[in-house]
Amino acid sequence: MKISLFPTLKNYKKEYFGKDLTAGIMIAAVSIPISMGYAEVSGLPAVFGLYGSVLPILFFALFSTSLQFIFGVDAAPAAIAGAALASLGIESGSADALRYIPVISLFVGLWLLLFYFLKAGKLVTFISTPVMGGFISGIALTIILMQIPKIMGGKSGSGELPELLKHLYETALHINWVSVGLGIGALAILIISKKVMPKFPMAVVIMALGMVSTLVFHVDHYGVALLSKVEPGLPKFIIPSVFHVDLKHAAGRGLMIAVVVMAETLLSENNFASKNGYKIDDNKEILACAAGNIISAFTGSCPVNGSISRTSMNEQFGGKTQAVSITAAISMVMVLLFAAGFIGYLPVPVLTAIVISALMNVVEWHLAVRLFKVSRKEFYIFVAACMAVLFLGTIYGVIIGIILSFVAVVIRETNPTRAFLGGIPGRDGFYDLDKNHYAHPIEHTMIYRFNANLFFANSKLFQEDIENNLKEDTKTVIVDAGTITSIDITAADTILMLKQNLEKKGIAFYITEHMQALNTQFRNLEMGGLIEEGCIRRTITAALLDSGLQKPFPLEGIPANLQESLEELREHAGKLPVHKHNTEKIEKLKKALWLHTLPAEEENTLEEFAWAFGEDTVNEIEKRVHRVIANLHHWPEIKEISEKGLSKQMQAWHNLGAIDEDEVLRRMELHLDELSANLEEDKNKQLIFQMIEKRRHHLEIELKQENPEIWEKLVESREHLERRLQKQNPEAAEKLHELEKKLLI
Known about the structure:
The N and C termini lie far apart (84 Å). This protein has helices spanning 17-42, 47-51, 55-63, 75-88, 95-118, 129-151, 161-172, 177-196, 202-217, 247-276, 282-297, 308-316, 323-338, 348-362, 365-374, 376-392, 394-414, 459-468, 489-504, 516-524, 528-532, 540-546, 560-572, 580-595, 607-613, 617-632, 643-649, 658-670, 681-706, 708-728, 730-744, and strands at residues 70-73, 304-307, 418-422, 431-432, 445-450, 476-480, 508-512. The longest helix has 30 residues, at 247-276. It is mainly α. A 5-stranded mixed sheet has the order 4-3-5-6-7. Strands 1-2 form a two-stranded antiparallel sheet. It is built from 31 helices and 7 strands. It is a multi-pass membrane protein. It holds the Pfam family STAS.
């Protein structure tokens, strides 16, 4: 397995240098307060956040294939590590914490190294976006609640939501208002600056102002806590104390953090890569994360992770390669060597405000809102993952999050979309009976489509769907298996049992439309008899013919002679000579068709619109009509509206089909009164009406000459539409008919 070092620096271009240098310095500056804050969250002294921003970043850049992603001390791993200390009763910043946290970092790196050799990157796809978003949001909210007491002049909280709220209440009884003023003021400035100046590194300015408040106004004399002083110097190498901690506990927490690091980093990296047009190697990214955490352990620091917030900043400043990470690491070395003395003047509430500000971006409010709008089921999964972290802790939150991801997959696979199919008079093919009002079941036949692979968890649903929908006159059951690519032994047994049950009732059973590979599975699962008995047919049509039916297949509620006539009309209408006998025959057939189908008022006749918008078709077409009318208001002279110009106004939906456009035009006529406010009443209304009718007439003539079959559909569609419009808006329809009589007589 070939591994190249610093892969993003190959073929480096000199024009990248300026942006990489600027982005690296800015990221280092912002990382100072954020990393120090997260180090304290993990249970280490703040300076270890700076240590975790030197070698771990370099070792990540050594292997990473991502052009932009920034590594370092981050929220989720710090929170899990801090929670691990709290569960053991280890005090933050104590000697025990200094021994325990590096061991967790070591195990995180070792687990990630194992994931690399197992090529486990694809496992991340099993953690859904709602679960990961809810989990990360829960962690961020937990840390925010842990940090708020420090703004109030107290110590950070620990535990889950009830304990955190209790600690908040107790801290509020001894609140330091100077500390609150500094913290709230800093937080307000940071929030406002993100909206007003999103690219400006306000956190660095706030940190500098905080130090000034100590040097000039001596806020520490008013009880405001300051960070511990940091001795200048680079991090020292240590050997993690693996023999002085509970290895089982440390390994377990390390596994949890490793899963979070792998999932969050890969998901985020792929998002940035996709957005910016490049590709990454998922497995090498796991190796890069492993290297970063192992070296973090040997510098005594906490687990490290990819940082979404710092990567976003890198993107804003135009960083092109991992040279940004190298610059950031070198800048941090300069800080540790020459500017460490200033850190001891930073007020704790100011640093806490910077951390909370960063964490507010981590809480995925936008995802929660989006899920609430588009998928309530996934929204509830998001909330469940978030609540699990808040009430049960990060460890159980990880477990519950992963379980929820698999539950979501199982629910989707065990309750797939299914449909019963039928035919439409005069048309080929088979259509969903629920979604096509003109579709009718084929006589004595059930055609069932199952849109998922068959396995132990959904095979009973498959069987029950068929058996519960049998009719007394059912003679044939046909399964459309076009989307079934695999079955397991449980499903195989279910199919054989179903066939036997149907045979006892004298019902023939067929499986059709599937790929050839499924037949191999049938034979391997000892179902080859189905093939030999002729139960496996290539198409639905072949199964229908085998069952004794003939084309055109008889439909329930449609007389056989009408079916035959419709088939003849469909095939030969375009070729029939135009004379009275044929015209009468066509009109008679159309009338018979309307008498034997479902009410036209409920039918979506628009071709492309009905396919695209489904149940919202009527609303969408009305929106289109109002948009065209609104555009007509902007024409300087109503006389300039030509048939061509009117048609051009309607092309927002790419190119409307003829039937689509005809319905849009007819519905426009119903809304002509809406133009009255801006146009001269009768004269202009009549002019627009004439233009619309001219366009409709042009469509009819054009289709009649070039495509008689579509012309027939247009004629049918117009008559159906008139009945629908009469039912939907009888008053407007009546006015329209009066206008027609006035202008067309």
